[in-house]
Amino acid sequence: MLAATMAVALLALLAGGFVAPSARADTIPPPKLFVTLEQGPGGTSVFLPTTITIGQIPTVVNVTVKNVDPTAGMQHTFTIRSTAATPPTPYIVNTGLLNSGEQAQVEFTVMAPDRLVVGTRNETVELDGGLIKFFCIPHESSGMKGHVVLASATTSTETPQMGVFLRAYWIGLLGIAGTMLLVAISYFVIKGSSRHYRDHREHIRRGGP
After folding, report:
1. Residue 19: its pLDDT value, please?
2. Which of 70, 82, 102, 111 could form a disulfide with 92 if both were Cys (CB 3.0 to 4.6 A apart)?
């Protein structure tokens, strides 16, 4: 009975190992990336840096925007334009005008290469060269813009190498080990319950060969 109980417990554990990873994956929140962008460093109408690189989709991006432009009265925005058919406003992300020395924080979730979620809004956005574009409203025509880039989009187009996911590798090893353990348990259970084995053990106990 003890061996049978152990076998059942082991099977349940192995079954949990196969099911649990996918169940946990559904509940894991997307990663969050914190970024600081400077506007107008040195009196130039640029963002620094000009790209926000994310590692995967979806990713929550939290951007702190600082207007460091030394030019008096120079205002900047951090803006992403919506291309939805009927958006509530033309901009899905917008800090509003920031004076020199001011800063603001915005947060959005990149759900697809052309789609953002901000609050209850889930909309397609303007692309530039296939990348999500952010810009400064007063200086968009002057080229003050940047892009949200997916890391995989910046890698070379080499043929991907086929391999085994680490999780699958360990699950496979656990499955082999569990099978071997079950075989061993079954062997001793069958051997221990065998009449021949019991009779022979009693024979040895009485001093027989």
Report:
1. 47
2. 82
CB burial readout 121-160, b (16+ within 10 A) else e: eebbbbeeeebbbbbbbebeeeebbbbbbbeeeeeeeeee
In this prediction, residue 182 carries a pLDDT of 82
pLDDT band of residue 171 (cuts 50, 70, 90) is confident
DSSP code of residue 153: G
Q: Return the pLDDT at 152.
A: 78
CA distance 177 to 161: 28
By the 10 Å C-beta count (0-12 exposed, 13-18 middle, 19+ buried), 58 is classed as middle
Dump the DSSP string for 58-124: SEEEEEEEEE---STT--B--EEEB--SS-SSSEEEE---B-TT-EEEEEEEEEETTEEEETTEEEE
Q: ∠ CA(163), CA(166), CA(168), 5° rounding?
A: 90
- Token digits of residue 159: 């043929």
What residues contact 114, with CB distance under 8 A and at least 6 apart?
124, 125, 127, 132
Are residues 81 and 124 in contact, defined by beta-carbon separation less than 8 angstroms? Answer: no
Name the CATH superfamily housing domain 31-154. Answer: Cupredoxins -  blue copper proteins (2.60.40.420)
- CB atoms < 10 A from the CB of 47, how many? 23
Task: Report the alpha-carbon distance of residue 72 to residue 80 in Å, rounded.
Answer: 25
d(CA 119, CA 109): 9
